[in-house]
Design brief:
single chain; 128 residues; mainly beta; Jelly Rolls; 7-stranded mixed beta sheet; globular
Length: 128
Protein backbone atom coordinates (compact mmCIF):
# COMPACT_ATOMS: atom_id res chain seq x y z
CA UNK A 1 0.00 0.00 0.00
CA UNK A 2 1.41 3.39 -0.98
CA UNK A 3 1.54 6.62 0.99
CA UNK A 4 -1.62 8.67 0.71
CA UNK A 5 -1.05 12.19 -0.62
CA UNK A 6 -2.63 15.20 1.01
CA UNK A 7 -4.28 15.78 4.36
CA UNK A 8 -5.90 13.05 6.41
CA UNK A 9 -9.08 14.02 8.24
CA UNK A 10 -9.24 12.17 11.56
CA UNK A 11 -12.71 13.57 12.28
CA UNK A 12 -13.82 13.84 15.89
CA UNK A 13 -10.94 12.74 18.10
CA UNK A 14 -12.29 13.69 21.51
CA UNK A 15 -15.36 15.09 23.20
CA UNK A 16 -16.15 16.47 26.63
CA UNK A 17 -19.62 16.76 28.11
CA UNK A 18 -19.85 18.84 31.25
CA UNK A 19 -16.13 18.42 31.96
CA UNK A 20 -15.17 19.90 35.31
CA UNK A 21 -11.58 18.73 35.69
CA UNK A 22 -8.42 18.74 33.60
CA UNK A 23 -7.65 15.63 31.54
CA UNK A 24 -5.41 14.03 28.95
CA UNK A 25 -6.85 12.78 25.67
CA UNK A 26 -5.96 9.79 23.52
CA UNK A 27 -2.38 9.32 22.35
CA UNK A 28 -1.94 9.47 18.56
CA UNK A 29 0.73 8.00 16.31
CA UNK A 30 1.78 10.24 13.45
CA UNK A 31 3.11 8.54 10.33
CA UNK A 32 4.40 10.70 7.48
CA UNK A 33 2.62 13.95 8.40
CA UNK A 34 4.37 17.20 9.22
CA UNK A 35 1.59 18.97 11.10
CA UNK A 36 -2.06 19.22 12.06
CA UNK A 37 -5.06 21.48 12.37
CA UNK A 38 -6.93 20.88 15.63
CA UNK A 39 -10.47 22.25 15.84
CA UNK A 40 -11.99 22.95 19.25
CA UNK A 41 -15.75 23.51 19.12
CA UNK A 42 -17.01 24.67 22.52
CA UNK A 43 -20.79 24.52 22.81
CA UNK A 44 -21.18 25.34 26.52
CA UNK A 45 -19.19 26.92 29.35
CA UNK A 46 -20.94 27.33 32.67
CA UNK A 47 -19.98 28.34 36.19
CA UNK A 48 -18.21 31.42 37.50
CA UNK A 49 -15.49 32.60 35.10
CA UNK A 50 -15.06 29.25 33.28
CA UNK A 51 -11.86 28.83 31.26
CA UNK A 52 -10.77 26.04 28.91
CA UNK A 53 -7.10 25.83 27.90
CA UNK A 54 -5.98 23.28 25.29
CA UNK A 55 -2.39 22.03 25.07
CA UNK A 56 -1.07 20.03 22.11
CA UNK A 57 1.86 17.94 23.33
CA UNK A 58 4.55 15.84 21.70
CA UNK A 59 6.43 12.95 23.25
CA UNK A 60 10.20 12.64 23.34
CA UNK A 61 10.90 9.18 21.93
CA UNK A 62 14.04 8.65 24.01
CA UNK A 63 12.78 9.62 27.46
CA UNK A 64 9.01 9.26 27.09
CA UNK A 65 8.54 12.78 28.48
CA UNK A 66 5.74 14.99 27.14
CA UNK A 67 6.42 18.58 26.07
CA UNK A 68 4.10 21.36 24.89
CA UNK A 69 3.96 22.21 21.20
CA UNK A 70 1.16 24.77 21.46
CA UNK A 71 -0.96 26.14 24.30
CA UNK A 72 -4.21 27.78 23.27
CA UNK A 73 -5.52 31.11 24.34
CA UNK A 74 -7.86 30.85 27.33
CA UNK A 75 -11.22 29.93 25.83
CA UNK A 76 -13.91 31.76 27.81
CA UNK A 77 -16.95 31.56 25.52
CA UNK A 78 -18.71 29.10 23.25
CA UNK A 79 -17.38 29.05 19.70
CA UNK A 80 -14.80 27.49 17.40
CA UNK A 81 -11.03 27.75 17.82
CA UNK A 82 -8.52 26.34 15.33
CA UNK A 83 -5.02 25.44 16.48
CA UNK A 84 -2.25 24.75 13.95
CA UNK A 85 1.09 22.95 14.30
CA UNK A 86 2.96 23.00 10.99
CA UNK A 87 6.53 23.81 9.91
CA UNK A 88 6.77 27.14 8.11
CA UNK A 89 3.34 28.44 9.14
CA UNK A 90 3.31 32.05 10.31
CA UNK A 91 3.29 31.85 14.12
CA UNK A 92 0.26 33.36 15.84
CA UNK A 93 0.46 33.49 19.63
CA UNK A 94 -1.69 30.75 21.18
CA UNK A 95 -3.11 29.72 17.76
CA UNK A 96 -0.36 28.59 15.38
CA UNK A 97 3.20 27.40 15.81
CA UNK A 98 5.89 26.68 13.22
CA UNK A 99 6.92 23.21 14.37
CA UNK A 100 6.83 19.61 13.19
CA UNK A 101 4.17 17.31 14.65
CA UNK A 102 6.20 14.50 16.28
CA UNK A 103 5.65 10.77 15.86
CA UNK A 104 3.63 10.60 19.09
CA UNK A 105 1.29 13.40 20.21
CA UNK A 106 -1.77 14.07 22.34
CA UNK A 107 -4.15 16.77 23.51
CA UNK A 108 -4.37 17.79 27.14
CA UNK A 109 -6.83 20.32 28.50
CA UNK A 110 -7.42 22.25 31.69
CA UNK A 111 -10.75 23.48 33.03
CA UNK A 112 -10.64 26.34 35.53
CA UNK A 113 -13.16 28.56 37.29
CA UNK A 114 -15.53 28.19 40.21
CA UNK A 115 -18.02 25.44 39.42
CA UNK A 116 -16.77 25.48 35.81
CA UNK A 117 -18.18 22.98 33.32
CA UNK A 118 -17.26 22.68 29.63
CA UNK A 119 -18.88 20.83 26.72
CA UNK A 120 -16.81 20.64 23.54
CA UNK A 121 -15.66 18.44 20.67
CA UNK A 122 -12.19 18.21 19.16
CA UNK A 123 -11.42 17.38 15.54
CA UNK A 124 -8.12 16.91 13.75
CA UNK A 125 -6.75 17.00 10.24
CA UNK A 126 -3.18 15.77 9.69
CA UNK A 127 -1.17 17.76 7.12
CA UNK A 128 1.60 16.59 4.78
Amino acid sequence: MGITAGPINLGKIMSMTGATVSAIGQIFDNHNHRGAHIGVNVTALTGLLPVLTVIIEGQDEASGQWYPLLTSVDIIAAGFTRLTVYPGVTPVLNQAVSNVLPATWRIRYTVAGTGASVTATFGACLLR
